[in-house]
């Protein structure tokens, strides 16, 4: 549902003959007048780059923070979650393809209206999620700034595929991120997502070094990104950044162009065990009834947050284990 006029986009340069080069994400699309970028959300209109999805909300909901997923950031809090349409990747297994790859119905909201919705509903966290928020950049940036001014925390659930300059400008406006690291193989990114691994790794390094809280999701698909060597490299990379980064190992279910069966539980358990050798906090997601979504104290092993579905029972005392007083990484109050 494109807004044909658009909104002035940022991060581009004008080239010869009214062509423009978008510099928002590593695709760096070169656009002749009238052309759309690969994300479908940015268009060259008479030599100027415009955002077509500014203020266009395809999905809006009150969600528990656990659903993002964020497990070490204000457990049990409700978020107002908003998303637009379009994506700069095109993963064949996308679980949200109806909004990322199609043209859903939208409603128009201004940044002020989104912040007022949070206030009217007594919600203290605003999440940009569902589709890819980085290609909604201008709207996300303006809304996050307003939200922060009103003491509302901001969450970004993203593929992390963005250029360094826009990321550096946005991150101070974001309280917490969950970055979807789809694989630790560049071939996987190129073949199944039409993206690249290197920019995502670089951006994870940047966010891990910032003061924004970071968690990572890795959706596993049996036979595609489940080899022992790949998982070992992925978790060692995260551990080198910070061994207390929470990792969500998530189960794939058939969606969009992928018909492969849901991820083998044995593959998930093997990845979980491997990740636990290097990282303090590892979780299994999309596997109902498993006990690997609870948080255990890495020092004494006590269960300090117990989760059932998307609800959580937080036994921490501030951010400390009630048994041994060990500090649990994250933001809990
Ligand atoms: S944000 Fe969209 S238009 Fe810009 S470079 Fe990326 S895919 Fe291309």
Shape: globular
Any idea what the radius of gyration is?
Answer: 20 Å
What name is given to the CATH topology of the largest domain?
A: TIM Barrel
| Element string (H = helix, E = strand) | EEEEEEEEEHEHEHEHEHHEHEHEEEE
Small ligands present: iron/sulfur cluster
What characterizes the major β-sheet?
Answer: 8 strands, mixed
Low-confidence stretches: none
Q: Helix fraction? A: 10-25%
CATH superfamily of the largest domain: Aldolase class I
The CATH class label of the largest domain is Alpha Beta
Please report the total strand number as a whole number. Answer: 19
Distance between the termini: 39 Å
Strand order of the largest sheet: 8-9-11-12-13-14-15-16
Domains (count): 2
Give the amount of beta strand, in percent. Answer: 15-25%
Mean pLDDT: 96
Oligomer: single chain
Q: Based on the structure given, which CATH architecture of the largest domain is correct?
A: Alpha-Beta Barrel
Class by helix and strand content?
alpha/beta
Describe this structure in words.
There is one protein chain. The chain has 333 residues and is α/β, with parallel strands linked by helices. The protein folds into 2 domains: 7-51, no CATH class; 56-314, TIM Barrel, CATH 3.20.20.70. Helices cover 24% and strands 23% of the residues. It has helices at residues 97-100, 111-120, 137-149, 164-170, 186-193, 198-208, 228-241, 265-276; strands at 7-8, 12-14, 20-22, 30-31, 42-45, 48-51, 56-57, 59-64, 78-83, 107-108, 125-128, 153-158, 176-180, 213-220, 247-251, 282-285, 295-296, 303-308, 311-314. The strands form 5 sheets. The protein has an 8-stranded mixed β-sheet with strand order 8-9-11-12-13-14-15-16. A 3-stranded antiparallel β-sheet has the order 1-6-5, with no helix packed on it. A 3-stranded antiparallel β-sheet has the order 2-3-4, with no helix packed on it. The protein is globular.
